[in-house]
Amino acid sequence: MKTDIAIIGGGVVGNMIARELSAYDVGIVVLEKNHDISMETTKANSGIVHAGYDAMPGSLKALLNVRGCALMEDVCAKLYVPYKKTGSIVIAFNEEEHEHIKALYDRGIANSVPNLEIINKARLREIEPEISPKAISALYAPDAGIVSPYELSDSAADCAANNGATYIRNFEVSSIEMKDDMFVISDGECFIEANIVINVAGTHSDDIANMVGDFSFKISPRPGEYALLDKAAGYIANTVIFTTPSKMGKGVLVAPTTHGNIIVGPSSYDADEKESYAIRKGQLPIIFEKAKESVPNLPVGQMITSFAGIRAHTEGDDFIIGSSKMNKNFINVAGIASPGLASSPAIAEYVADIVKEVYPKELRRKENYNPSIKRPIRINSMSFEEKQVAIAKNPDYARVICRCETVTEGEIKDAIHRPVGAVDIDGVKRRVRAGMGRCQGGFCGSKVMDILSEELDIPVNSVTKFGKNSKIIFERTK
User: Fold this and answer.
1) For 36-74, how does the pLDDT look when each residue is reduced to its tens digit (9 = 90+)?
2) Which of 75, 145, 225, 417 fits 49 for a cystine, CB–CB 3.0-4.6 Å?
3) CATH T-level fold of 379-462
4) One CATH from 2.60.120.200, 3.30.9.10, 3.20.20.70, 3.30.200.20 for 88-142+223-310
5) Confidence band (pLDDT; 50, 70, 90) for 277?
6) The dihedral of CA 334, 335, 341, 343: what is its sign?
7) What distance in Å separates the CA atoms of residue 247 and residue 69, rounded to the nearest whole number?
8) 182-213 pLDDT, tens per residue?
9) Residue 294: what are its φ and ψ, rounded to 5°?
10) 50 catalytic residue (yes or no)
11) Where are the domains of the chain?
12) Helix 149-162 vs helix 60-79: angle between axes, to the nearest 10 degrees?
């Protein structure tokens, strides 16, 4: 198969780049090694749209974070992705930390972050009534927000596919060679030829770059654990609550999610394993202890699940985005740790500009490009009248499968048949939230499995949780 551009990596940044480039008259193939897109860093992201005060002035992080934050609301509106401008605060508990947030304020002003202010204890408690009485001040960034990271990623992929991009899953790149000025990308069985390669492979982006002789950077995986609290705990935080950051990251945060839960975390530690998503023994109590320094009454008994993610950390602590010195048509997009999600719309623009420079012909914008997608049916958020109209058109929207999140059979079928649709239980979960609630799929999981089996026309014992060796059932017992 030949194409103009091959994008390696189907996380949120890869999918946002695919969406941006699909506006032009070029062939695009997105290669994802997993059973589905959005399965690595993107699926285990806190969903914070950072305002941009943390990055060093002049860095790519600073430039792209501020721009991405400004773009995010419009992008989410076009893609029908949950987004809220909640604001964020960084708390100071003593004079030393107060001086630190003053430095963050100065940095934010240098980065052109709008509406930043340092607030006193009284104003802080107005914004966050549950905040610790020990807090003396805070940096307040009202333009920060929250987004659903995997819904943004999956909707961007659908948009790219609607505009002509091709997605190939279960394609783990094993080699990249040159043939007649074309990159030949192989997974050991299939071959993709491309004029341009965009390397957005997350924690494996250094491994992919090594395949073309580029050893200019190294990714150090930095895992961290999170806890998710039930919606009943939603009262505990109105904004994204940070403590003062350290060299290991932004510290343990307490924040609302776009769907009304509370997320707590992450921890942060350096590791050698690039795909370790296990929760380390004894870490959750440590996370909660740190979080309670900010929010003493945090209802830890409301935890419904925990998970781990991995950041793609680099020594220089900045994004690595640009043409490789080995070949200008090989574009690295690496080290996209925090604030990568917030920066993703701006990263997509930035990479598109690089492609325009190296592509051998002038990129022509499509006259029929559509930056939006079809509005999805979401029964849980519809008015009674809207529900009646939807059900009249399709009775499947009347059959509730996931009671915790009020997700219907019609919505699950829609998730499977989207342009880049769900192919496993976790894929359905990310797209429409079936299994995201208090019972975590305990009641609806078997029903989701049956629907996947029927809609994908595969045996029920071939349905997996997340691909690979994650079968749910093996054979009939009675």
Assistant:
1) 999 999 999 999 999 999 999 999 999 999 999 999 999
2) 145
3) Arc Repressor Mutant, subunit A (1.10.10)
4) 3.30.9.10
5) confident
6) negative
7) 23
8) 999 999 999 999 999 999 999 999 999 999 99
9) -90, -45
10) yes
11) 1-82+147-219+314-375, 88-142+223-310, 379-462
12) 70
Pairwise CA distance, residues 387 & 384, whole Å:
5
Bin 76: left if φ > 0, else alpha if -120 < ψ < 50, else beta: alpha
Q: Scanning the structure block, which residue is given the tokens 């009775």? A: 395
Q: Choose among 54, 74, 19: nearest CA to 351.
A: 19
The whole-angstrom distance between residue 403's C-alpha and the CA centroid of its chain comes to 25
User: What pLDDT digit, counting tens, does each position of 295-304 carry?
Assistant: 999 999 999 9
Query: Which position among 35, 50, 98, 313 bears the catalytic label?
Result: 50
What size, in residues, is the chain? 478
Q: Which residues pair with 88 in a beta bridge?
A: 141, 240
Q: How far apart are the first and last CA of the chain?
A: 46
